[in-house]
Amino acid sequence: MKQIVILASGSGSNAENIITYFQESPGIEVAAVLTNKKEAKVLERCDRLGVPAFYFNRTSFTNSNAVVQVLKGFSADLVVLAGFLWKIPENMIAAFPNKIINIHPALLPKYGGKGMYGERVHQAVKENSETETGITIHYVNEHYDEGAIIFQAKTAVNPSDDANSIAEKVHQLEYEHFPKIIEKLLS
């Protein structure tokens, strides 16, 4: 059985989508979800879906091997960032080479880097009058949003779109493609 561990910081809609996708998939399961926010909505989703979820603080993440040991304890074949905003420390990247992936709500290399997440990305896409945007699934390295690209999907941006409608289009791409790409990587 292949094991996925998800790291999430927020509401957990992508985490829930991944969990429910693999509940029907033999051979792959979400072993756990780890979060850096005690009040993250993803914890409620995990409780409802029966998936173990754990909180960790910044010290255990960046200044020790505690989170790496937890990931190893779950025998993580793939660590999936789903709305996780902290930079991944080098000890974790070294422990899981080419086994940590992220989804970014834009077509990298555009609109990536520190501070570029969520609505900030969609607002920048709108302000720059882009005609398309999308998602990028990529490996995680020591720099924000600079790991090798695994997959991209595009959607049109219409002049009438605002940041919210752009976000909705991007979320639909995330829900459609992220679980399938994870499955492909683990097959």
UniProtKB/TrEMBL annotation:
Pathway: Purine metabolism; IMP biosynthesis via de novo pathway; N(2)-formyl-N(1)-(5-phospho-D-ribosyl)glycinamide from N(1)-(5-phospho-D-ribosyl)glycinamide (10-formyl THF route): step 1/1
UniProt keyword terms in alphabetical order: Purine biosynthesis, Transferase
GO biological process: 'de novo' IMP biosynthetic process
GO CC, any one term: cytosol
Class of this enzyme: transferase
Reactions catalysed, as given in the entry: N(1)-(5-phospho-beta-D-ribosyl)glycinamide + (6R)-10-formyltetrahydrofolate = N(2)-formyl-N(1)-(5-phospho-beta-D-ribosyl)glycinamide + (6S)-5,6,7,8-tetrahydrofolate + H(+)
SUPFAM superfamilies: Formyltransferase
EC assignment: 2.1.2.2
Domain Formyl transferase N-terminal: 2-181
Matching Pfam families: Formyl_trans_N
Record GO terms (molecular function): phosphoribosylglycinamide formyltransferase activity
Domain of life from the UniProt record: Bacteria
Family: Belongs to the GART family.
Protein name: phosphoribosylglycinamide formyltransferase 1
